[in-house]
Amino acid sequence: MTFSRLPSSFRSARFPAVAAMAAPIDCRQRDSAAGRPFDAGERASVGRPWRVGTPAIDSICWAEFGRRIRAIFSACAVAFAAAVLPPSWAAEPGAKSPAADAQPQPKPSAAEAKAGAPRSAEGGTKAAAAPAGVPLDPQRVAEIAAMLPPKPRGMGPTIDQREPWRTLAAERRFAELLGRMKKEVGKPLPPITDDDYLDYSRTGNRTRGQKAIGARFSHFADLVLAECLEGEGRFLPDVAAAVRSICEDKSWTLPAHDGNLRNFKGIEYSIDLHVAAVAWNLATADYWLGDRLPAEVRALLRTTLRARVFDIYEGYLERGRPRVHWAEATHNWNAVCTAGVTGAALAIIDSPQLRARYIAAAERNTEKFLSGFTDDGYCSEGVGYWNYGFGHFLYLAETLHQATGGKVDLFALPKVRAVAQFGRNLEILPGIYPAFADCSIGAKPDRLIEAFMMRRLGLPLRADEIGALGPAAGPQRLLPATALYCLPSSATARPEIRETTTDRPLRSVFDQAGIVVCRGSGSSAGFGAALKGGHNAEHHNHNDVGSFVVALGESTPLLDPGLETYTARTFSGQRYVSNVLNSFGHPVPRVAGQLQRSGRAAAAKVLRAEWSDRTDVFALDLSVCYEAPSLRKLTRTFTFSRDGRGSLTVEDRARFDKPEEFETALVTLLAWRQQDENLLRVGPDAQAVEVVIETSAGRPKIEAVEIKENLPQNRVPVRIGIALPKPAAEATIRLTIQPAAP
To answer: What percentage of the chain reaches a pLDDT higher than 70?
Structure first.
């Protein structure tokens, strides 16, 4: 590309920068802001025809093209000014005088020097004012670079290493995948249409578009696995076509994360959860299949990954822009995106030094992520997001362990052992977990995550976790996870330790999070409860301070209703309009007609925490959770008894300046009935609980309301409101919950 047709006056020595603009663009060199040369894959893409409007555009060349265009417009302004203004205006903007050239340039800031980020080509004051990059320790980067192989390496074996793939192909679930994919040969990826993508921006519905996106993601993974399992080239044309199709997608970002449609419209690329997963799958496919893929497909894949992922992340690391919010986050986004971006880089980027920067950044990001858990290991996002976020931490940690020969070991970080046992400790009864926050009812810790982590940390495995790792783990949608679970790892290098007892501790106390799980024993072994303090600014928060779940046998007759189906409202300023996310949908008091307020200040204060073999007492002050001017004190006391078949007493005491309405609630998905004025029965006969009601002001008012929000599986919880018959300045409601008589 040249500017040889520019007017000769613009190419004269009078405007040296414009003369430089007329020089051919050499796409073999990176723009100075990128701070490094092309890697081999990028060089292979030079000379590829441009396809305007698709991801196949060479973003580096276009960036240079845009820079030159802007400079030409500036030069035009200067030329006009030179014709009508004094000679002193004729100097080209940004051009330095000989005297200026002789002046010493400012030294990089400490942050810039520590980050190792290149200085701006503009230099001087402007460079010093630019946002600093991420402060990575150059010495640590150099140490990591020395640990890495000279060439990129992904997770798992390449297709030419046939023995591991033959081992997997012999396992039933992999054989079934191969048989199924043989019937799909020649079929394109499931489509994603503009209407699919735009459905969220038009209606707020996340499900329809994400279903189409998920189908493409899964089909691509299955194609790559099928080719590696068989190794005969049957699926290579379909894999190549799928790579082209994915690279031509307008956006990899999920519609719900592209509310202004800047990704969809091609204005910018941003990295979200799905982008990170797509990047890691594409890079893994390239690593596994190697030269069996056409050269132009591999070049397209690399160019697209650079434009959509690597340039963005490296810009953040080097210059602090564009901002990558998830790298600073303390929730699942951090682990998921860091794992995907880092894993992709390790599988495909040639430079060991650059790969080392990704690992150093991952170490930093991981510190942020783990800080989102309390030191006792509690995950306020709930079991489902523990699977997702901590599961990706596992993927990242094992990837770095393998990439560095075990020298980078995130598993050894102090908090990991406690977080890994979150599921173990949250379990109320076998297979029963509370659905606090945005957690689905019935969600359980992922068996493979627990099997891997328990074995990796030298902790006992449950019976169903013995032998879970290895080929029996089966295919995973994320390709590197297939290698991680199904093939040798740092976990399988350690022996399996079988649990010697199935007895669970009487309780689990997450004292920093304000969560207690109580379990029965002896004749009350089938009864348990989860009790929640905490605050109303937790990750994926519900306004639910004081909530509780009662488990009996294999069910939860009284529960927390869990998450709603996500829509545009869910993560907006209207979140707590939802009666399943605000406190109306939880078994907590309503005070003077008020629901709980949101925010960190709405926090339970623990008044008593007394534990014994026979009784557990957990008392909370909930006063600050309600904006009721007349409220002076509100306490909730849980008393869990292991006598007989077990019981849970929930006692609320309120004091006001004047008589006020006061009520509490139970939430259930089961049939219930009122047996008399102070007795309720909830659940079917074999799994029913009785609720004895006592109040300070006579016969309670009981009103049941269906919570008609958009819940998974069309669930409609019922809120059983239990109120004082009339306003009172002193109010007490005591509920005693126990297994119903047979």
So the answer is: 82
Q: Are 595 and 581 in contact (CB under 8 A)?
A: no
Decide if pLDDT at 30 tops 80.
no
Does the pTM surpass 0.70? The reply is yes
What's the mean per-residue pLDDT of the chain?
86
The residue among 413, 415, 488, 504 whose CA lies nearest residue 455 is 488
DSSP one-letter code for 461 = B
Nearest to 17, CA basis, from 78, 101, 62, 103:
78
Q: What is the pLDDT of residues 723-738, one digit of tens each?
A: 999 999 999 999 999 9
- Looking at 331-413, list the stretches that DSSP marks H as alpha helix, in order from N- to C-terminal side: 332-348, 352-370, 383-385, 391-403
52 pLDDT tier (thresholds 50, 70, 90)? very low
The CA distance from 401 to 513, in Å, is: 31
> Any idea what the Cα angle at residue 55 is, between residues 49 and 57, rounded to 5°?
35
135-161 pLDDT, tens digit per residue, is 999 999 999 999 999 999 999 999 999
Query: Does the pLDDT at position 530 exceed 80?
Result: yes
Burial of 470 (0-12, 13-18, 19+ CB in 10 A): middle
**How does DSSP assign 468-513, residue by residue?**
-SSGGG---SSHHHHHHHHS--TTTTS---B-S--PPPSEEEETTT
Alpha-carbon distance values, 278 to 113, 224, 351, 730 (Å): 33, 13, 22, 59
The count of C-alpha atoms lying within 13 angstroms of the C-alpha of 486, restricted to the half-sphere facing its C-beta, is 29
Q: Which of 409, 396, 508 is nearest to 457 (CA)?
A: 409
- If one counts every other C-beta atom within 10 angstroms of the C-beta of residue 608, the result is 12
Under DSSP, is residue 537 helix (H, G, I), strand (E, B) or coil? coil
